[in-house]
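A favour between colleagues. Tell me how you read the following sequence-structure pair.

===
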Amino acid sequence: MSLGDMVFSRWPLLRDKGPDHWAMFARVLQDKGKAADALDLALAALDHPDCGGRSRVLAGRIVNAGVPDWHWRLVRDSVRNAAYEAALRRVVGPDSLVLDIGAGTGLLSLLALRAGAGRVVACEMNPAVARMAMAVARDNGVEDRLTIVPKNSADLVLGENLERPVDVIVSEIVDNMLLGEHTLAVHRDVVPRLLRPGGSVIPAEGRILAALGHDPTLESRRMGNHEGFDLSAFNRIASPSHRIKVGDPRVRLLSDVACLYDFRFDEPGSWGAVATECPVVAEAGEANAIIQWMRIDLDRSGAADAFYEVRPRPGAHSCWAAVSWPLVRPICLQQGERRAIGAMRTDSALSVWLAGG
């Protein structure tokens, strides 16, 4: 069935209409809550040979709804990609069935296949992203070995979506604070339910790290006197944290590093307490924030490429950011001074503060 025949069979009123009308009608479908139909028609408009500026923008808004922009950053992080592929090469073989959770572009699935996996099933709950992952599989000639399931991992069913428990679970569902994409809840569900005994989880471990530090961007994020008026009261509703670039040479760490949490993703029963307090030894300097970042250990091989850490340092590059948790007020630290960093977590959120401050 041609593109036009498909559209006209479902929406006859669009016969003899061009992609502008297709895109505008897709918006009507979206407004009426018919998201799946709107996505189908918007994608058809984008594939229309006459799709131009207006129709491309109108249809693009529909297909892009809910698609995070970090997808475009992740695939450019060659260090991250290499670490994942190296870990996959250490565990997969021609008989391996791999589950990729949160397929996104499908890159991790493609890396698993290139590493030697026999078959990959990838789940992706965003409909537009899942459709594009299917297109990526076709474009790369692996649709016979890579299946994209447009579902949340919690909805995967053995015997339906997976023919048997998998040998490897691979995912990249972490954020700057490690927890924001529900990685703990996902692993708590899928590891006992979908992974065969003795199977591998990539990444195997995730850590939330922090240190006292100086955030050079903090002053530009706070209000003071502007146009002759004191606006500082507005700072009370500022976010308690913000992202900072890991390669900013002005960022300084002013203590040793505390490991606030250490999660072995393949052992959900080992995750421990939700609240913690970690001592640190300070260096001399003025601290105005706690600087927090994450580390993932792809496996426990001990290989040089088996981990990826987002530690701030001059010239560092990462698809992730570090996180600044501003202190109530700057503190002057003495060399060797002992302080403590407090933290509390849920399965999907993190809070960090200076204990006793």
Notes: The CA atoms of residues 291 and 324 lie 5 Å apart. The chain has a mean pLDDT of 95. The first helix runs from residue 3 to 10.
